[in-house]
Amino acid sequence: MANESDQKYAVDVKKRIEVIQAEMKARDIDLYLGSRIRTMSFIVDAFVPWRSYLVIPTEGLPTVFTFVIDATRLLSETWMDEDHVRGYFGAGGAEQIDAIQYFIDEELGIKNGRIGYETGMSTYTAEGYLTHYEYVRFAEALPDFEFINSHDIVDGASLIKDEGTMNRFREAGRIVDEGQKAARAAVEGGGWKGMTETELAGIAALAMRRAGSVSEWNFAGLNEISSGWRTGLGACTPPTTKEFAAGEALMFDLHGMFKLALGDHSHNYLLAPATERQRWHADNFVACVQFVADSYKVGATPGGLITALGDFAEDRGCSDFILPGVEHGIGLFGDEWRVGASMDVPIPYWTDPDHEYQENEMVILAMQYAAQEDDIGFRYENPIIIKKDGCELTSKYPLAIEEIG
Amino acid sequence: MANMAYLGPEWSEEAKKRLEKELTPENMHHVTSSMSNIYQNTPDGKEKYLFIAFEDGKVSQFEVGEGEPPAAEFKIIAEYDTFAKISRGELGAVRALTSRKLTLRGNMAKAMRLAPRVDRMNKVLATIPTDY
Q1: Would an 8 Å CB–CB cutoff place B112 in contact with chain A?
Q2: Mutating which of B79, B82, B103, B107 best tests the A interface, going by the most A Cβ atoms within 10 A?
Q3: Closest residue to B107, CB basis, from A86, A92, A98
Q4: What architecture (CATH level 2) is domain A4-157?
Q5: Is the pTM of this model over 0.80?
């Protein structure tokens, strides 16, 4: 019997499959061949790091094929049974194309039809689209099938989060807040002296692990820490051995993972003594973040938000320092950078500026502020849940830029 | 004991007897599964099979025949010569698989876990005086 904790975080994967299968039927697709990490997370509901393939028929359960060395561990963590967790390896009949071709032809008994597969482009390196080589090999192995790009079926099914998924994100938010508390405790009262960005990243990681995180997850450098001039570099700052110094800004972008939900919160500080100019930048940034957080609600659009923020920042005289964009998509592991639920947008694989947010959709409220001429910048990230009249922040760490000594 | 023709009726009878005697439920870890070895390009030109099934670690079915084998959880397909080399110890099963001399069909993750038990079975078969 599931305990209370399991219930809180339970997700109905079978319902997800039914939604996908219904859409497959509507599009006359006989099989779905998933390869993206986000597709694995959404259906397998377990950590799937190796190159894997998910075969979803229009009826019945899907089958995942993963690198055989990880198949036993995966079987122990997923809801799927042994018959539906397969391995592949470099041997006759056992390599990925052979094994899947045989499975489709002989075990599912489907000899021809339409296969939905996942291709496209992404800013996120680890997206997992089928490679050209894989596509050619599959097309050769399954010559009587037509291949149709269909990743938007899974994207559409995963756009609105269910209660269990939102609860996982809430817990991931609590976990990153524990990391932020530990980070602050480590640097306050002169603790920052002699400390490097890498050391701080480790302190925060330990606190989050103690709180239940299983990974710092980010392909961009795990916990991203920057200080001084590095805070103005933009959106990716894997920590370095640079030591913190008085009079600098600090940025702690912490990542935790709980049941595949990605915790992500960036918090900023000024190490005393702060100049008036630094304080001005800091106050601008906090005001801009608060403005955007107050603007999210059902019916709002990315285009509307960025326009409104631009006007707000212009009024404060800081628009030159705000990087264009206020969010990026978020979902379970592998869904760090959602490309949108539809390929049919003005610029394919980029945010649709006219997308109207729906209730229980999630994005990361993400803002970058970079004033390189002043050697300073800030970052804010927080996964949020869109609500009818606002949004819910999953990290509850107070929005502020304190000056600490 | 005189040599027996590989996959012939006498060899088949002897193989079944030895497997039943030497493979215990304990050393087969009470496995329940089945496999068909499919022999292509045999000396007489016919496609042959060796089918074996285990129930709770005991040999429950053993059959050598021609044509379509009984349905099995795993199929291993190879040239007759490849199987013969494996039986004579001249070619390792893993080497044969990774060089595509053998084609394996079935749940690969499960097959990997069962591989040592198949090796145990092959070692028993290798003890039969055989003419290939």
Answers
A1: yes
A2: B107
A3: A86
A4: 3-Layer(aba) Sandwich (3.40)
A5: yes
Q: Which two tokens stand for residue A38?
A: 């986000």
Are the Cβ atoms of B112 and A82 closer than 8 angstroms?
no
Instruction: Please list the residues that pair with A252 across neighbouring strands.
Output: A225, A267
* Mean of pLDDT over chain B: 92
Q: Band of the pLDDT at A393, cuts 50, 70, 90?
A: very high
Q: Which pair of tokens denotes residue A257?
A: 């993972």
**Sequence-distant (≥ 6) Cβ neighbours of residue B83 within 8 angstroms:** B37, B39
Give pLDDT tens digits for A243-283.
999 999 999 999 999 999 999 999 999 999 999 999 999 99
Report CA dihedral (A69, A73, A78, A79) to the nearest 10 degrees: 100
Hey, are the CB atoms on B109 and A72 less than 8 Å from each other? yes
Q: Using the predicted structure, report yes or no on whether residue A343 has a pLDDT greater than 80.
A: no
Residue B112: closest CA among chain A residues belongs to which residue?
A: A68
Angstrom distance (rounded) from CA B42 to CA B102: 15
Specify the CATH number for the domain of residue B55: 3.30.1050.10
ipTM (interface pTM): 0.76
Flag if B109 and A86 touch (Cβ within 8 Å): yes
